[in-house]
Amino acid sequence: MREIEDLTDTRLKAWCIHCGAPIANVESNRDHVPTKALLSKALRKRGAAYDRGSGDELDYLPQVTICKPCNSGFSPDENYLLCVLHAIMAGSLYPDPATHPEAASILRSNRQVVRSLKNGPDGQFLLFDNLQPFTLYPDFDKVRNVIIKNARGHAYHETGEPLLEEPDHVAFTPLDRLNPEQRSGFEAVGFNPELSVWPEVGSRMMVHLLDDKTIVGGWITVEADRYRYSMDWTGAITVKTVIWEYLATETRWER
Ligand SMILES: [Zn+2]
Question: How far apart are alpha carbons 212 and 149 in whole angstroms?
């Protein structure tokens, strides 16, 4: 993505968007939205080069400033979601390093997560390895935490608006479980320049809307096949994301 300067009201930048701590009084750092580990290693490398001032401007990875305790507090849940996604995509908790090198290395270095995934919420031993169907029962709250973190980050990054309240609605499901009607409802992003409320002048979203290369069908692609998101702020604020073209998420704040 091309980096765009955020020119919205600086008074809104005074607090950590997750806990509300005044940023001036606490240690803070830059947090990637989406969770960096969800992107490919190649893009992460290019993004880091851009941050150091040497890379291509199209390799900017969206970031927001949050407090340090929040930033490190999300790490275990982000790591958990990463393990879940890798296990699902590789079809095993013990993927073959020859065919799924990234999944194998992530799951090998997170044995405690693998152990917890083998036990369902009701203590049921799950099917894994080469048995079909491959079923996991990930911890809802951990996945939810990461989805909210990224949704809040996207909203803040795009519109400059901190959403400190708990969202009113958080949902996630594999994209292929949506029936055709649900799928087209999910993919349609309700932005109509004639009817909608425009985002604040100076916000990144405003710039994106004027640049039809960034937004395709209402979606902003951070990395093809890895991560895309959309925002609708007409009335409620709704952030949708698609992770690895597998997991569809929707987070909404009614206002
Ligand atoms: Zn915080």
Answer: 27
